[in-house]
Amino acid sequence: MAKTSRKRTNLSLFFAIFLMMITFMSFLILIYYETHKPLVIETKTGKIMATTVTRLGKSVHCFFGIPYAEPPVGGLRFRKAVPKKAFKETLKAFKQPNYCFQRKTTIDKSSEYVKQVLKYIPDLNHYFDVERAEDCLYLNVFVPDSGANKTVMVWIHGGAFISGQISHYDGSILAAARDVIVVTISYRLGVFGFLAANGSELPGNYGLHDQVLALHWIRDNIHAFGGNVDNVVLFGESAGAISVGYHLICPLSRDLFSRAILESGNPLVPMIMADRNINTEATLDLIRALCPHIAATQVDSRGIT
């Protein structure tokens, strides 16, 4: 009888210890989950989930491929972009977005150069696993894991308005080094971004209007990421710097940023300015080349849509 009682006591003690261990392990798992669960931000267009990386010993939350406009395809091609409609499901912003249409040889050469520059980044391949598509109006946001009310730096890439992509610019390093939020924006390039003709429904400069729409999205949503909407710095290089210069003098961009940095470019560069009549002829030549079944006499600027 005593042996049976002692055996039951030992079993009860063992069971109690087992329960304590399970409880302790569950507690550790809960702590790990709470400290490592992906950050989710709620914007006006929907909830967005980040991936987190370590840069310079600091955590940075990366939101890749946030859409700021509806895809510029079909009836929206060669038109000003329209704001992205709200989405119901949480957007898992883990993957670099498509890059805008351009000559593939140009982007391949650029990629090789950037790979040499960024070869010490552990997740380098992530920045080159991207596709080319017309559906390309996205932005990336890099947020340091510390506090709020931060300066926001908005990067416009260069490339002579015919090439470039935001996946080549890892804003997480700048975010960690200077404790700022970094936003990189994509915009339409080449024919898709700047096709124009007098007397037609092709006013041109869609790529610049894309940038304005992206700035509106940033103004409306960056506070949710911890950014100071009154301290937005717009900066860019080459064609990006030229774009920044345009926004400095454009009424459409007024109140969308507070400071600007122009690197190797300005809005007065002669080669960027194009006579509208010359643009129109170039557009007509392009149409004739791409649509040979249309007689040259049938093509004029009034018939372009």
Automatic annotation (TrEMBL):
Keyword terms of this UniProt record: Glycoprotein, Hydrolase, Membrane, Serine esterase, Transmembrane, Transmembrane helix
Membrane-spanning parts: 12-33
This enzyme's EC code(s): 3.1.1.-
Taxonomy, superkingdom: Eukaryota
Pfam families, alphabetized: COesterase
Cellular component terms (Gene Ontology): extracellular space; plasma membrane
Biological process, per Gene Ontology: acetylcholine catabolic process; choline metabolic process
Gene Ontology molecular-function annotations: acetylcholinesterase activity
Top-rank EC class of the record's enzyme: hydrolase
InterPro entries: AB_hydrolase_fold, AChE-related_enzymes, CarbesteraseB, Carboxylesterase_B_AS, Carboxylesterase_B_CS
Family under the similarity heading: Belongs to the type-B carboxylesterase/lipase family.
Protein name: Carboxylic ester hydrolase
Organismal lineage: Eukaryota, Metazoa, Ecdysozoa, Arthropoda, Chelicerata
